């Protein structure tokens, strides 16, 4: 019978203790300032540059981190916070100011943008205190350790998540971090890396996640499908029960990771999620890919993975492993370039590069570690200019273009919905019904079961709502921005694109807008 997480961890710690007793010495490289540039989905939607171009501030306490945020001219003024030493409950208090919204007992990044937090010198350890990102964008967290964050027992922080993101978060790069617990939920711990409630364009790279019941999730429930465009690359997942990660809806790219001792399940794609899983190395683990604990299926595209001593359950009920011979059941188009190591060298390259205090080394794409160049230093206004540059059309008249409205008979979903409104109202052909987001901004999507060619949309607003300010049209299959502009209420044209889901993203509005119809045309 499998031992509980806490017992497995004790065995591992005993091994470390023996090594120390016989005089085993390990050299730890000095932690270094932010290096390299964002990779993966964090490069999309305008890119992720953190606090590049801003003032550099040194912090040795959580209170000083909060003060660095609160002392800025505005909540979007770039800042690089270099952290050294141990951050804990005793030195993390709330700081007030017009450019921040902090809290005691947690590193709170709320309602802000353009921030880099990087461990330097002898290293930065967040001990029993989590990092919480909410309603924020363009954030970099690099070269730090976050350990033993609990949701029950004492002390507690961040709902038990080492790093947690929620509620309209965009463009975050988490790189060369070590996230670890000392047990599972029964010991008071939750997830190491959790994303929920409309979190998009995130990359977790060259990091270690270990000794936890739960690695992390994307989406808090089967209905929380507004998250996506997440990249996981060159990470080590070790001694974890499940969720490496758990995906609910959205798209993920998972490559060149090393998975060791996953005890119950690994990559759990469900509720319509689609994952591209390539050139990973799975060892001494169980059910490393599939749909588990639900009847709502997810999908995967697989290539180049190595399964070393992996066991698979029989399919039954809500247990649907991809193995023992995983094959693809979807295709996922990746919009960015990336370097891909062969799976056979992944254990070696990850051991040399992943985690905090490794000199921020990365793979050169040929199974050799290399040190990246310093990160960007020029100012950035945050992820507002899409890449590649979309067209900026002028909204046309409210009369629809010629042809068939492809939205009729399609499906719809979105990021949130106001009281008494429905996603389905935008595809019912009735101008007297409408959808509204729960606030002034939000996303509404039209989706089809198969790829559909679209070159125009027509947004028809209902009377009585707020005026739409800035907006974007997104290819939800890839995250690409098809068009952007300001003021809506008419025809928007763009290059013809074959896709399964298209999203109208309202990024600014006066009041709460009302969308009566989201029409689509070929």
TrEMBL record:
According to the record, the signal peptide region is 1-33
Q: Tell me the Pfam families matching this sequence.
A: Pectate_lyase_4
- Compartments it resides in: Secreted
Highest taxon listed in the record's lineage: Bacteria
Describe the location of the Pectate lyase domain by residue ranges: 78-288
Q: In its keyword annotation, does this UniProt entry include Hydrolase?
A: no
In which family does this protein belong, per the annotation?
Answer: Belongs to the polysaccharide lyase 1 family.
Know the name of this protein? Pectate lyase
Species source reads Micromonospora rosaria
